[in-house]
Amino acid sequence: MTPRAIxxxxxxxxxxxxxEPLESLQSVVHDRLGLTGTKAGxxxxxxxxxxxxLDGEPVLSCLVPVEHVEGRSVRTIEGLTPQTGExxxxxxxxxxxxxxxxxxxxPGMITAASALLERNPNPSREEIIEALSNNICRCTGIxxxxxxxxxxxxxxxxxxxxxx
Amino acid sequence: MTTQAxxxxxxxxxxxxxxxxGHVTGDxxxxxxxxxxxxxxxxxxxxxxxxxxxxxxxxxxxxxVPGYIGxxxxxxxxxxxxxxxxxxxxxxxxxKVLAEDRVRYxxxxxxxxxxxxxxxxxxxxxxxxxDLEELPAVFDVEEALKPDAPxxxxxxxxxxxxxxxxxxxxRYGDTEKAKQEADHVITGRYxxxxxxxxxxxxTGCIAKPEADGRVTVYTNTQAIFFxxxxxxxxxxxxxxxxxxxxxxxxxxxxxxxDVITEPLATLGALKFGRPxxxxxxxxxxMQVSSTRSASRIYITDGVTSDGRIIxxxxxxxxxxxxxxxxxxxxxTKHAANAAGPYTIPNVKIDVYCVYTxxxxxxxxxxxxxxxxxxxxEMQMDKIARELNIDPWELRLRNAYRNGDERPYRKIxxxxxxxxxxxxxxxxxxxxxxxxLRAMSSNDREGVN
Amino acid sequence: xxxxxxxxxxxxEAAKLLAGDPAAIVMGGGTTLMPRATRGQxxxxxxxxxxxxGLSGITRNGGLRIGAMTPxxxxxxLEEPAALAEAARAVGGATLRGQATVGGNVLMTRPYGDLVPxxxxxxxxxxxxxxxxxxxxxxxxxLKNDPPVAAGEILTAVIVPEAQGAVSFKRCSxxxxxxxxxxxxxxxxxxxxxxxxxxRLAIGAVEPRAVRVEAAEQALVGTAGDEDAVKAAVAAATExxxxxxxxxxxxxxxxxxxxxxxxxxxxxxxxxxxx
Lengths: 164, 448, 275
Hints:
The complex is a heterotrimer of chains A (164), B (448) and C (275).
Chain A: E1 4-10, E2 13-19, H1 25-32, E3 51-54, E4 57-60, E5 73-75, H2 89-96, H3 106-119, H4 125-131, H5 143-163
Parallel strand pairs in A: 1-5
Antiparallel strand pairs in A: 1-2, 3-4, 3-5
Helix pairs in contact in A: 2-5
Chain B: H1 20-25, E1 40-46, E2 52-58, H2 60-63, E3 68-72, E4 81-82, E5 95-96, E6 102-103, E7 109-115, H3 118-126, E8 129-134, H4 141-144, E9 168-172, H5 175-181, E10 184-192, E11 195-196, E12 204-209, E13 215-219, H6 224-235, E14 242-246, H7 262-272, E15 276-279, H8 282-287, E16 291-292, E17 295-303, E18 309-321, H9 327-337, E19 347-355, E20 361-362, H10 369-387, H11 391-398, H12 417-427, H13 434-437
Parallel strand pairs in B: 1-15, 13-14, 16-20, 18-19
Antiparallel strand pairs in B: 1-7, 2-6, 2-8, 3-7, 4-5, 9-19, 10-17, 11-16, 12-13, 12-15, 17-18
Helix pairs in contact in B: 6-7, 9-10
Chain C: E1 4-7, H1 11-20, E2 25-27, H2 33-38, E3 46-49, E4 58-61, E5 63-67, H3 72-76, H4 82-89, H5 102-107, H6 116-121, E6 125-130, E7 133-138, H7 139-142, E8 154-160, E9 166-173, E10 181-192, E11 195-204, E12 211-212, H8 214-220, H9 227-240, H10 251-270
Parallel strand pairs in C: 1-3, 2-3
Antiparallel strand pairs in C: 4-5, 5-8, 6-7, 6-8, 9-10, 10-11, 11-12
Helix pairs in contact in C: 8-9, 9-10
């Protein structure tokens, strides 16, 4: 009944927050910590608009009890946006490729896609579709999103090679 | 003197969508992202059955839930009986903001409760006791038109009355005679299910009472002015007292034009003096919010052996659900389009707007017309198969041309169907004959 | 909101907590409980969590020992038995498979439970822990009870014997991924020479829980798996189940798909294929 304190790393910084027992990570991030990019489209793990990265793995945060992130690292769309004001290659690809319309699924899509590209810098079309299989978009018909992920992956590989 | 054309800044150039940047960074603010001090939460108490008389509603257990603030019933609503198209003179007023003595579909709102937290509002709503006397219900459009069907509407028939008729009608030529003269009579029965818009963001708003007596409503409606005006009518208050802020919609597709949450949230803001958040759950969005209307379409065509459609009869039953919303209007659009983009000398169209005990259908992406397109084009393919005629040829021969009279007596202007079909064939890699390629919207070469 | 959420440090601690409060709910991955908690449906209840009880992990020793809290994604990554990995891929979407657990999948009723037909075909057992100690039960036996795990007991592991013969998994769904099964079928065939010495056929998603169809299995044993035997097995299978009607598919459609997918699963297993 009494809210408990939970400590975890959020977008690279340690945060301490109160939470009710079994409060979802989505509720804590969105309602208590004010990072509104992580949406509650369904609160049953069906739409993916609540996707965040937990220790680098994509998770549906509406299904994660906040107790499970104690001492762990959480990254949201805000933490995937460069501080410089530039857009990340993935964000730029979504923006330029019209892979976002109403925008509600977009943070979840980018977060899931970002996790994919971290572990697989050269995903096939099937691998992209599989990685986004828990993210629903009702506007774009998903095709521009798949294209944007492919474009971003290519751009990121270019940048890697240039840096090498 | 020669002038050099300046390069265009906008035309022919890809433009950045001005709001997309916020979408990809997570900065765009939607209704659920807004919070106000002392904001309370509203949840609806809904009918669990499709058709019933309401005997009583008991809030005593709900009132005991910690965080309970209050509730609203139909008695609190100044103009409880309305219809959203009253603004353009559509009659009659028939839908209830909150049910009075009757419920007509599963999910119909009977009351709303307000509480300090969303969880408390859920709990309070679940503890409201309903005493309902279930009535026979009807779910099928043709069943609903039978003489002994349960009556859904308050005016006693299960159809919308169009200028004295029980359906929207178009009469052109003499289909009875033409059917006799035809070489083939080809029929089809086509059925579409109701389709849920399922936007990723659910419907909702926050109504905030201001110190000057006005109410600011933050809403994700697709139709701000329309919703403001209807809210003013329902609450019997001047529009000048309402300020609606919105335009950021997390998916609409026609599903956020029904004026659902704003009137009650505004009423709650005025009654309880606090910002009221009323946002649909995913369950409400999928089960209660309006859908595209289901249609059952019967087509009977009289066709000559060389593929001319000389007679077309269409009888459509559109499932309006329990209340009108946009469906009577959709039915009119359907009727106008039910002969298809073809020139047919004899046409008979009857489109019924049928009331059933199902959640009300309403607007969705070309509603009324898209269902007609589906059925008609399936029918065209059926004709092509049965007559062993190329489906491209069948359409080109029957396509309307400039100057042709439509069944509703307007003269066709700016027709480009023939050219569009030709372009589509080229894109699809389909080789059309020279004769078909030579066809034009401006003449009837190769048609008569 | 829930009264309390306690994360047990060991399975024994979880069993003890449960014994001390029989009204408490045990939570594994939380994929089906969290939506209820969020909607205030677990108000006042005490929840015991297994996320830190050390129940995750797969060890191989001929067969497999899969900890109940193992994410379904880890089963997806297995190479053998391929049919089990395929069944894991049928569970939810990619993200969800990192959160859904094997134990949850075994215990939930339809539309969940895609692992169960393959586990039944492999003669899997479950390990449960209660205040009386640990015990092992064949999964097929356990599923005859509702719930399959007795009050006061916790599912700790699924034991999968090494597959004897060829195993297949075929499922019918509206979408290729992220879509519930309309029918899910697993088959296993072990031959001695040309003759089928052992057969298993399990059908899931048509009834509340997956079932083995012994009549269909018997129709195959002792035969060479010819067309007549397959026909008889398919008929027995279709006869044995009573498909449900729901939003994903009508009972009629489920029945038709059962026939088709049983045949596909049997053909795949008979060809000694990987399903």
